[in-house]
Amino acid sequence: MKILLVEDEERAAAYLAQGLAENGYAVEVASTGTDGLHAAVTSEHDLIILDVMLPGIDGFAVLTALRTCRQTPVLMLTARAKVDDKVKGFELGADDYLAKPFEFPELLARIRALVKRGTRAPADEVLRIADLEVDPIRHRAFRGGQRIDLSAKEFALLTLLLQKSGQVLSRTEIVSMVWDINFDSDTNVVEVAIRRLRAKIDDPFEVKLIHTVRGVGYVLELRE
């Protein structure tokens, strides 16, 4: 899952980006309203965390412009806690509003609620293929009825592969959707993550689900 964080306070942005990354989110950071709006309309994100007090154009202006072309969920994150400001944010199209200071677990809870609300999945929200099941909301994975313990990045990678089941994903695509866009793509992090994931969800089982397409990338699918 990819999040755009628009926050001009450098220390706050670094803290939030690190915390979100540790919880399995890919994070793109913008420090001005102009840069945030450009990133929001030129790239795909699952959620935008938008500060109100920004240099250049403020968060309200960013939200107004964004809503003319995108309906990406937006969580307003700001020191402005007045009711009038919250009402204005909601009227402009914000999906949630969190006033500073706040506890990080609350931010995570609000993010999960927004993602769940925006998924609009049918009654069954669990991703399945063969005997593999992944519940993105409850952050749980099972194979053959056996609970699989995964790190945040392993879970994010598995969820991506399941969501794109049958589609070959290149190394670059995986990096952009599981790690942040500034990640050094010259490293072998994808190969290492795939190897660790296979050790948990493929190696103990007879039927293998994660396949390498040489020279292209990886795909998760059930093969005869």
Describe the structure.
The two termini are 30 Å apart. The chain is α/β, with parallel strands linked by helices and 224 residues long. 40% of the residues lie in helices and 21% in strands. Strands 2-1-3-4-5 form a five-stranded parallel sheet, with helices on both faces. Strands 6-7-8-9 form a four-stranded antiparallel sheet, with helices on one face. A three-stranded antiparallel sheet has the order 10-12-11. The chain is elongated, with a radius of gyration of 19 Å. It has helices spanning 10-22, 33-42, 59-66, 83-92, 104-119, 152-163, 171-178, 189-201; strands at 2-6, 26-30, 47-51, 74-78, 96-99, 127-129, 132-135, 140-143, 146-147, 169-170, 210-213, 217-220. It has two domains: 2-119, Rossmann fold (3-Layer(aba) Sandwich); 127-220, Winged helix-like DNA-binding domain superfamily/Winged helix DNA-binding domain (Arc Repressor Mutant, subunit A), CATH 1.10.10.10. Residues 119-124 have low confidence and may be disordered. The chain has eight helices and twelve strands.
Which architecture of the largest domain does the CATH hierarchy give at level 2? Answer: 3-Layer(aba) Sandwich
Number of domains: 2
User: How big a fraction of the residues is strand?
Assistant: 15-25%
Q: How far is the N terminus from the C terminus?
A: 30 Å
Indicate the mean pLDDT: 86
Helix content: 40-55%
Number of strands: 12
Count of alpha and pi helical runs: 8
Overall outline: elongated
CATH topology of the largest domain: Rossmann fold
Helix-strand pattern: EHEHEHEHEHEEEEHEHHEE
Strand order of the largest sheet: 2-1-3-4-5
CATH class of the largest domain: Alpha Beta
Which blocks of ≥5 consecutive residues have pLDDT under 50?
119-124
- What profile does the largest beta sheet have? 5 strands, parallel
